[in-house]
Design brief:
A: MetI-like fold, 2 domains, B: 304 residues, mainly alpha, 0% strand, transmembrane (chain B), membrane (chain B), MetI-like_sf (chain B), MetI-like (chain B)
Chain lengths: 320, 304
């Protein structure tokens, strides 16, 4: 082996040297491109990698006056304290169940809607329906929370009135813990299902019309054509989005939850990220909160890798 | 026989189409109704809104809600701040995103894979809330505009979308011709590439602009002076905090809230008006720009 290596070294080095010179020439020639990339490079270095470096306070007892280096190491104490706490399982359960609920409801609806849009040939109706269903995507999360609160108000909200007209008593959606997850998930569907169709419609527009013509000649019904031509055409998009969604299982839409949270629905609405916010920025337990945040990110990364691996074993649509 | 089978097929298809149209119409109504309801509620007599008598079209028309909103100083301050943060923030976003995306689209950039890899990692792993907060604090940006616009200066997703655009829509010959002419990369980018890239610049300005306009969280954690609050934070006080503290039996802490009339009905009227005023600029321009937004998502969906 060593001899072989020597032989390769002897014959290839000049080639490689030439390659290196070429690389250097290219770098010098394109020096401006490095200037182009510099703002983004420093931005990610400082504002993404900087905080990653700061993660070490999860293993220290961070005291602001002493700085990161002056604070004493504590090992895994903060993690152990979190795992042993009485709220650990509640937080984990709420986070997972909200995410899975959201995935189960929010993932298929844009797909069905996109398939339905795609079957409509009337241009004007289709365009109007698309414009209207896309629009809620642009409503801010604060306004969304405000809308939810006013619509679901038990005394004056329109939803309570509608349920009352049907002859039922409306539950108090905003304060009843049993309703929190449903409220969160379905308001999310209302806001983003329409926008979510775009990516599938793009995939559907790439379907070869010849396939449909051939299927029509073979006597396939519209429904059969959707099932056997259109759905297979969007499977790659579906797979990629599913992997990405799984990768953020513990990263639920924290901004909206934070806004809809109140002391009465806390047992169902407190998730890891809102807890990190409260313990870290409200109660200033910097190290403890960072440890919980790190736990969250690590689980996310593991889920992403595992799901991607599982997908890669069954088909070729994995992320990497 | 062939006739028969065509007939049968079209019969099945009719049922399918009927279902399909009903489904789309249902989705349409479910999305449109809350929007129409809010528009109507914002100009209706709050008593009729609260009792449920007004459920679709405005009843007992009044503009008091809007009048009160227009008189409210903190909403106007918030509007002004949001405009400032959105314009400055979006300018920074474009300045960071476009040149980087162009450089990454060039096959002759050595180290391209290193940069791309370094950026993409941040999509899946981050330092988390507290380390980011401590960093911004350390940099002395707390309670300034910079805490809002700098930590969100670029999104890796948008950089990828732009890079895909540059790779697929700008002919490579242009770059080669410019290099033969001996013009620099800077000149090539500014006077040839950018003018050809107006569609993607529009898409990026819109994506980033909407994001900046709608964001509240960084303002909430980094800003202390109410004078500097963006609109979304003022809205949070009016729409969320006031309501939540009333429900949980706490005290109203928002100065904005007490500045408005505290009678429940008037407060509700103001809420609808505020929702409309805060959302109108974006919803009103969106149908005209829909093409660009959709284009942006589509470019992003091309695996590259």
């Amino acid at each position: 082996m060593r001899e072989a290596g020597g032989v390769i070294k002897g014959t290839v080095l000049p080639e490689r040297e030439k390659g290196r010179n070429k690389t250097w020439r290219r770098i010098v020639l394109n020096w401006e491109l490095y200037l182009f990339i510099a703002p983004a490079f420093f931005y990610f270095l400082i504002f993404s990698y900087g905080p990653m470096y700061g993660i070490q306070i999860a293993f220290r007892n961070f005291v602001p006056t002493k700085g990161i280096y002056g604070s004493p190491w504590t090992g895994f104490d903060h993690f152990i304290r979190f795992f042993d706490s009485y709220y650990f399982w509640d937080l984990l359960w709420n986070t997972f169940s909200i995410s899975l609920y959201e995935l189960a409801v929010g993932f298929p609806i844009p797909i069905i809607l996109a398939l339905a849009f795609n079957e409509i040939k009337d241009g004007y109706f289709k365009r109007t329906a698309q414009t209207i269903t896309y629009a809620p995507h642009f409503i801010s999360v604060v306004v969304m929370a405000g809308m939810i609160i006013t619509f679901l108000s038990p005394s004056s909200g329109i939803v309570a009135h509608l349920i009352g007209w049907l002859g039922f008593d409306a539950p108090d959606f905003l304060t009843d813990p049993r309703w929190f997850k449903t409220m969160y998930v379905f308001s999310g569907v209302w806001q983003s299902a329409g926008w979510g169709t775009i990516i599938y419609l793009a995939a559907l527009s790439g379907v070869d019309p010849g396939q449909h013509e051939a299927a029509i000649i073979d006597g396939a019904s519209r429904f059969q054509r959707v099932r056997h031509i259109n759905i297979p055409a969007i499977v790659p998009t579906m797979t990629i989005l599913l992997i990405l969604n799984m990768g953020s299982l513990l990263g639920v839409g924290f901004e909206k939850i934070l806004l809809l949270q109140n002391s009465l629905n806390m047992e169902a609405s407190d998730v890891i990220s809102t807890f990190v916010y409260r313990s870290g920025l409200v109660d200033a337990q910097y190290s403890f909160s960072t440890a919980i945040g790190l736990f969250n990110s690590v689980i996310n990364a593991i889920v992403l890798v595992v799901v991607n691996q599982a997908v890669r074993r069954t088909n070729e649509n994995s992320l990497w | 026989m062939p006739m028969m089978s065509t007939m049968k097929v079209s019969g099945r298809d009719k049922i399918f189409l009927a279902f399909n149209y009903s489904f789309v119409i249902l989705a349409f109504v479910l999305v449109a109704y809350p929007v129409i309801y809010m528009l109507s509620a914002s100009i209706s007599d709050p008593k009729l809104v609260g009792s449920g008598e007004m459920w679709l079209l405005p009843k007992g028309i009044t503009f008091e809600g809007y009048e009160r909103v227009f008189q409210n100083k903190s909403i106007w301050t918030g509007y002004g701040n949001t405009l400032l943060y959105t314009v400055v923030g979006t300018a920074i976003n474009l300045f960071v995103t476009l040149p980087a995306a162009y450089a990454l689209s060039r096959k002759d950039l050595s180290g391209r894979h290193f940069f791309m890899g370094m950026f993409i990692v941040t999509m899946f792993f981050g330092g988390g809330l507290v380390p980011s907060y401590l960093l911004v604090k350390e940099l002395g940006m707390v309670n300034t505009m910079w805490a809002i616009v700098i930590p969100s200066a670029a999104s890796i997703w948008n950089i990828i979308v732009c890079r895909t655009f540059f790779q697929t829509s700008i002919p490579k010959e242009l770059q080669e011709a410019a290099q033969i002419d001996g013009s620099s990369n800077l000149r090539l980018f500014v006077s040839i590439i950018l003018p050809l890239s107006m569609p993607i610049i529009a898409v990026m300005a819109l994506f980033y602009g909407v994001g900046n306009w709608n964001s509240y969280f960084s303002a909430m954690i980094y800003l202390n002076d109410a004078e500097k609050y963006p609109l979304q934070l003022v809205l949070r006080q009016i729409l969320v905090l006031q309501e939540m503290s009333a429900m949980a039996g706490g005290t109203i802490d928002a100065s904005t809230a007490s500045a408005l009339n505290n009678k429940a009905e008037i407060a509700a009227l103001v809420k609808y008006a505020v929702i409309i005023i805060a959302t109108a600029p974006i919803i009103a321009i969106y149908p005209f720009l829909q093409r660009y937004f959709v284009q942006g998502v589509m470019i992003g969906s091309v695996k590259g």
